[in-house]
Design brief:
By secondary structure, the protein is of the alpha+beta class. The protein is built from 14 helices and 30 strands. The chain has a ten-stranded mixed sheet with strand order 7-6-5-4-8-1-9-10-2-11, sandwiched between helices. Strands 19-30-21-26-27-28 form a six-stranded antiparallel sheet, with no helix packed on it.
Length: 806
């Protein structure tokens, strides 16, 4: 019955509404097909790659009786094609940076805005990987296989976590038209099970059209101790005591850009820079955070009022914009006690310092681009956020972001104990949801909420000195992240191919924004846009937005949701910028039409089936996601191996296991890491310290269960063993650690709780050293083993019966 209903809705939608496929034309208000003279789409492009070059002259018996030879010429884009600098910040809200009225100073963004345009109605998908997939492919994120982040992929077409070859990227098209291409920073578009150093590399940046990559293959990373790769190889851990990833990424972006222009100045580049800022962990030096002492003591309610006033003065919101109310589940700032205010204000100071630093670092990159010989012909697209600000810190904030991903919420009382160390390398901290809501001023909700603009509306600055004449202008046309790809292609005068690398291509759904560059009053060309993320839903059409909230981000466990009974709201956003006035009761027929259109578009865009589960989808055991470690219970490592991603390593969660190592201990005593999985956010460690054997489990940063042998491990060849016997009975239970040397027990102790879902979002397994953050603060990475490591064997004893709700 439901399938029949959906089919009927699809037919209804096709008859009543335009879809955003191909190079979308300008549509009339009544949605009638365009006249032949209305901005016709480009003619179909040839297939890429082009046929191999062949000599066209006459070939005789010798060169003497043959035509003069010719060579294939160096491939160049069309004349006048610009350099493209694409910058995408992480987890940044509409009201965060001063360039759009926020409280985090951004002088370099402001400088760029005076040279170009600010876009005030630009939208993302409400989450990182989906936004990035739509950005690169010009298609809806579900069509690009990325309805959610790869770590919670479920295997349906819209949720594989894999960008299909039929949705080729802008980088691949540009590269095959003569551009130099590079990606610096966050890559969260490679399936988690393919991110080890052995690949496969089809879905790494190199397989997505990028000549060069320097960054990290995960949703987030430590700002001080990141796990980085260059192209396909791990980058050694930095020895700089003042290291910060924001500075490192800016350095590499500048170096690549300058090197490319020095070697081949006539070749335009496409440089995609995706910093880790301002995603958690909010790690930043005191030099930056201390600049903001006391500046957020007013709290989030007053911050929103102050920000909206600034936004109106800047002209980035209409003068009649209303401030949307605080969600009922968020506390009023005035209701907090003094300790809560002190803690939360400090967390916001750290966040502000983190944001101010990334403005400075990207400012260095912008200055370097401005110094290029062809700077005027450089198209800069600066997107401030892949979604709204993140409320994943929960109501009280977190010292460990990974706690929420294991279904555990921290309390302000426990967080307060660590207030003086937050922002440093020991804590993976995240501010409370109230500040995320404030960063999204004046909009409703936050990251993950695709139904409302607090999750999806992000500021954008576009500069192109050679072409954009309205310096400092503001643009209000409704656009979406998938519109960036066709904008770049039109600017470069390059058509998207119908066939790319032998694969027929899905239609590009993006709408080029070039028509807005020198016409502030140009009519919107994006008429329709569907939104969906983990069942938070929205449907935009011709100035109207229907919104249905399924959950809020600070609810890690979600049960009892029924999409057929969910409440819908209706907003006339042409007159209501912030979605402040729900007019569902006034226009019920309009709302019903948009609801029907949502279901039709959902069927067409691979959004179905709806799935509202939360943290349980992080478990590979519950979802059956691919893994190169799947189906194996014995793992043998004959050499040291570091930075093996968790998704490619033996899964130690919710089961008994044994780690056996054949080592040679020096005469002076053993010291250093034998085996670790995870780090400061959660995980296991097995190492020698001052001659004694140590086994430890870090329970999501809350407790560290540490077992030390009662005697030293003897020098010479020794077999040492870490045996963990799991209690069983479900996820996250405890167990017993037994330490052995040459088969003889030399230590033991109990682990009361274990981490059941995820040890880390960025670091994995190390043998012979610790390449990331420490699982236990009794040592300092890299903590290389000082003896010889001959062999490490991991044996798993799986626990059966783990179940998930259907």
């Amino acid at each position: 019955m439901r399938r029949v209903l959906i089919s009927r809705i699809v037919l209804f939608a096709i008859s009543m509404a335009p879809t955003c496929t191909g190079w979308v034309w300008a549509q009339s208000p009544d949605s009638s097909p365009p006249a032949a003279t209305t901005v016709p789409p480009p003619a179909p492009a040839e297939s890429l790659p082009r046929p191999d070059f062949r000599f066209q002259g006459q070939v005789g018996r010798t060169y003497q009786d043959s035509d003069p030879p010719t060579f294939p010429q160096v491939l160049r884009p069309p004349k006048g094609a610009p350099n493209v600098l694409l910058i995408l910040l992480d987890d940044a809200g509409f009201g965060q940076f001063s360039v759009f009225g926020g409280g985090v100073p951004s002088p370099n963004m402001e400088k760029l805005a005076t040279q170009g345009l600010r876009y005030t109605r630009f939208h993302t998908t409400a989450l990182c990987s989906p936004t990035r997939a739509a950005l690169l492919t010009g298609r809806d994120h579900h069509i690009a296989g990325t309805g959610v982040i790869t770590e919670v992929a479920t295997g349906y077409d819209g949720y594989t976590g894999i960008i299909p070859k039929s949705a080729g990227t802008v980088a691949e098209i540009l590269k095959q038209n003569g551009y130099a291409t590079a990606w610096i920073g966050k890559n969260h578009n490679t399936p988690a099970w393919e991110t080890s150093e052995v690949g496969p590399f089809d879905h790494w940046p190199s397989g997505l059209g990028f000549d060069y990559f320097y960054g990290f293959n995960s949703g987030d990373t430590s700002q001080f101790e990141p796990i980085l790769v260059e192209n396909h190889s791990r980058v050694p851990r930095s020895t700089d005591p003042n290291y910060h990833i924001s500075h490192d990424l800016a350095d590499h972006a500048i170096a690549w850009m300058q090197r490319e222009k020095e070697i081949d100045p006539a070749r335009p580049f496409f440089l995609y820079v995706a910093p880790s800022a301002t995603h958690a962990p909010h790690m930043v030096s005191k030099e930056w955070s201390d600049k903001f002492k006391g500046q957020f003591d007013m709290g989030w309610d007053r911050y929103r009022e102050m920000t909206l006033e600034r936004q109106k003065k800047l002209g980035v919101v209409p003068a009649d914009t209303k401030l949307t109310p605080r969600p009922e589940s968020l506390p009023a700032w005035d209701s907090l006690n003094a300790d809560q205010k002190r803690l939360y204000a400090r967390m916001m100071e750290l966040f502000a310092g983190f944001g101010a630093q990334i403005d400075f670092e990207i400012g260095r990159l912008l200055d370097a681009a401005a110094a290029l010989p062809d700077a005027d012909n450089t198209l800069v697209i600066y997107i401030m956020g892949d979604n709204g600000s993140s409320a994943e810190g929960g109501l009280d904030g977190e010292t460990n972001e990974n706690a929420a991903f294991n279904g555990v919420l921290e309390t302000w009382q426990s967080n307060l104990k660590h207030i003086d160390e937050l922002g440093g390398p020991k804590y993976y901290n995240h501010f409370p949801a109230g500040w995320a809501w404030a960063m999204d001023t004046p909009l409703q909700w936050t990251k993950q909420v695709a139904s409302h603009f607090g999750g999806t509306r992000n500021p954008v600055i576009i500069s192109w000195p050679a072409k954009i004449t309205d310096k400092g202008g503001v643009r209000t046309q409704f656009h979406h992240i998938m519109d960036v790809m066709p904008t770049i292609l039109e600017a470069a005068n390059i058509r998207a191919p119908e066939t790319l690398n032998g694969i027929p291509q899905k239609p590009i759904e993006g709408v080029s924004m070039v028509y807005t560059f020198n016409d502030a009053r140009a009519a919107d060309r994006r008429k329709t846009q569907i939104f969906e993320l983990v069942s938070n839903r929205g449907m935009y059409q011709n100035g109207w937005m229907a919104s249905s909230l399924a959950f809020v981000p600070w609810e890690p466990v979600r049960t009892g949701y029924d999409p057929d009974k969910a409440k819908w709201e209706l907003y006339h956003i042409d007159e209501d910028f912030s979605q402040a006035n729900d007019v569902a009761s006034k226009y019920p027929e309009k709302l019903e039409a948009l609801k029907d259109l949502w279901w039709a578009e959902a069927a067409r865009e691979n959004i179905l089936p709806m799935d509202w589960r939360a943290v349980e989808r992080l478990s590979d055991q519950l979802t059956g996601r691919p893994s190169i470690a799947a189906g194996r219970n014995t793992f043998v490592y004959d050499t040291p191996l570091v930075a093996l991603p968790e998704a490619s390593a033996p899964d130690l969660k919710n089961k008994s296991f044994t780690i056996t190592a054949e080592v040679e201990v020096p005469t002076g005593g053993g010291e250093g890491m034998i085996f670790t999985q995870g780090g400061i956010t959660a995980g296991w460690g097995f190492y020698l310290q001052k001659g004694k054997l140590v086994g430890v489990h870090n329970y999501i940063g809350f407790d560290r269960y540490r077992v030390v042998s009662t005697e030293n491990v003897p020098a010479g060849k020794v077999t040492v063993t870490f045996d963990f016997k799991y209690d069983g009975g479900g996820m996250g239970k405890g167990g017993m650690i037994t330490l052995l040397a040459n088969g003889r027990k030399i230590g033991g102790g109990r682990v009361e709780k274990t981490t059941g879902l995820k040890y880390s979002l960025y670091e994995g397994q190390d043998i012979g050293e610790d390449s990331g953050s420490p699982v236990d603060f009794t040592y300092t990475p890299p903590y290389k083993f000082n003896g010889k490591l001959n062999k490490v064997i991991i044996e798993l004893k799986p626990e059966s019966g783990l179940k998930t709700e259907r």
